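Lab manual, section 2.4: Encoding a predicted structure.

Procedure: take the sequence of the chain (380 residues), apply the prediction step described in section 2.3, and record the output as structure tokens. A sample record is shown.
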Amino acid sequence: MPAYENDLSQLVYELNRTVPGVKTGKTASLDSLLAQAAEQGASDILLVAGSAITLRINGSLAAGAGKIQTPEDIRGMLVPLLTNEQAKELESKRALDFCFVRGSTGRFRANFHYQRGTLAASIRLLPSQVPTVESLHLPPVLARLTERRQGLILLTGPTGSGKTSTMAALIDLINARRRDHIITIEDPVEYQHANRNSIVEQIEVGHDTPDFAQAVRSVLRQNPDVILIGEMRDSETMAAALTAAETGHLVLSSLHTNDAAQTMSRILDSFPASNQSQIRQQLSLALLAVIAQQLIPGIGSVGRYPAVEVMIGTTAIRNLIRTGQDHQIRSHISTGRSDGMTTMDQSLAELVRTGRISRETALAHCYHPEELRSHLNHPV
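Recorded output:
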């Protein structure tokens, strides 16, 4: 191991190292790599010692080009991005999340971490403009949810499913249509919202506040109308979000679950059994909607489209949540189209029928293959 691995003075020294170019194999700067990734429509860049630089395009990893990266190559490319404080955090916690800007190329979200004792990174390219509900191909019912003044809207799905983009589009819609005080709490801040008809404050965890839970409690004293909580990571944040939604605020947040029923379980399991009855009562009163989504590759790997399950907090759904009948939620969603609800399988089938994704791709991404086949063979 090189001597500078644990020497912070050396960690922030290597300022002008270069790396192989993605296309040509020639020496190129980090800025050149980022620009090439943007030109190729990549969403992410993976930098791992022992592998070539790899891009994710339309959800799939493209074959790496150029020479195999050494640990020194990776460090030389990444270390110059860090401030002294970030370098110290990386070395002490062995991982670091942050956003950065590179000239005219745009903004990027980075995760630096260690694997096999060497520095590695995943860098996401962030769009220069906040997306819209239409540009993301989201169902119109999501836009109607932004008209509500109080309650909890949850975005769910695996990492990389577009939850952050969807929340940004909803916030932008509120920003354009309403005269509200909007506060977002994010880790890190990805989309930057300019004030339109509303005033938007964006709080970054680790920079402006120590954690989500403390930030939510604090912003309740700052006269907000709308609160976005980037992710509900613990019971303390969940409880604070529910309280905010009950006390006259519209709250948007996200969880890593696949559907509405799993979302109920995930929230309840975060609390002691003695508190779960109270949490069910709060959820039944506060929950406006659960929106579960996946990003599905288009036909011929051209673009990606969201498959979206939507559960609306109707009287029937609220009663199921309050009485613990979570197993019946999905059947109510499947028959709730008049209320704007749809299951994931119904959404996938619609994407197939409109020619956006293939039948095989839909089956590969569904949770209930027989139900999807039924929707494809007998469209509603």
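Check your result against the sample. The chain is about 35% helix and 25% strand.
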